[in-house]
Amino acid sequence: MKLHTSARAPNPRRVAMFMAEKNITDIDLVMVDLNGQQHRSPEFLAKSPLAKIPVLELDDGRMLGETRAICTYFEGMVPEPNLMGTTFEERAFIEMSDRRVEFYLLGTIANWIRHSHPGLAPLEHPQFPDFGNSQGEKLRGIAHWLDKELSCHPYVAGERFTIADITAFCAVEFARGLMKFRPANEGMPHLAAWRDRIAERPSAIQ
Predict the structure, then answer these.
(1) Alpha-carbon torsion angle 178, 149, 81, 77, nearest 10
(2) Largest Cα–Cα separation, the chain
């Protein structure tokens, strides 16, 4: 199998972190140059028609896109350590948490960065700075929600580390790296402490 991926982008990092937690090391990595627009080349569009990364190329030639779908495939391939839930009830609550941080936290951060940071202009044309700045303000409310959640339990989805922590961590790190977003400076002590704990995991090291 081959994983078509890219350095530093949050969704590829989510898959890389998931693989590291599973100790999956036998997948060939094919790096895609986003700044060079390689993801919009005819060759790559044949693999990912919406020009999105990452993409898992299976041995039978099929292409599996979307980060969570790829992680679901790896969860089935390597069941332990479990990161998506063991019972239908746990799976549902973990998915709820993961979807919330993906759609509302990571999605808002992505809009903020893509429309506000000049380095992302080649990937988001045209940029809408006013929209980007509004997303930066919106992020604070979402992050405060997560800070409150983490005051009640040690991990995003409850009492143990799951895929929801991976998604949230990669989102926070994306904002931390490009927009200098620091939960500790925003009055979010629980989110800051959680971020520092997750950063100590070997899978978090890029």
Answers:
(1) -70
(2) 50
Q: Following DSSP, what letter does each residue of 21-71 receive, concatenated?
A: HHT---SEEEE--TTTTGGGSHHHHTT-TT--S-EEE-TTS-EEESHHHHH
Q: Could you read off the pLDDT of 23-42 as tens digits, one per residue?
A: 999 999 999 999 888 999 99
The domain of 25 spans: 2-77
pTM: 0.94
Instruction: Categorize the per-residue pLDDT at 45 as very low, low, confident or very high, splitting at 50, 70 and 90.
Output: very high
- Verify that 71 and 99 share a domain, yes or no: no
Q: Is residue 2 classed as helix, strand or coil in its secondary structure?
A: strand
* Partner residues linked to 31 by β-bridges: 5
pLDDT at residue number 121: 78
Does 96 share its domain with 197? yes
Residue 110's identity, in one-letter code, is: A
Using CA of residue 179, residue 111, residue 11, residue 200, what is the dihedral sign? positive
Q: Is the pLDDT of residue 8 over 90?
A: no
- Distance, in Å, from the CA atom of 109 to the CA atom of 120, rounded to the nearest integer, reads 13
Q: Which of 178, 136, 174 is nearest to 14 (CA)?
A: 174
Are 99 and 19 in the same domain? no
Can you read off the two tokens belonging to residue 180? 């200098």
123: confidence class by pLDDT, cuts 50, 70, 90: confident
Locus of tokens 């808002």: 108
